[in-house]
Amino acid sequence: MPHNTTLGRAGEQRAVQHLESRGFCVVDRNWRCTEGEIDIVAIAEGILAIVEVKTRTSTRYGHPLEALDEAKVSRLWRIGFAWARAHVDVARGRDLRVDAISVCGPDPATADLEHLAGLR
Question: What angle do CA 16, 5, 113 make, to 5 degrees?
Answer without folding.
Answer: 40
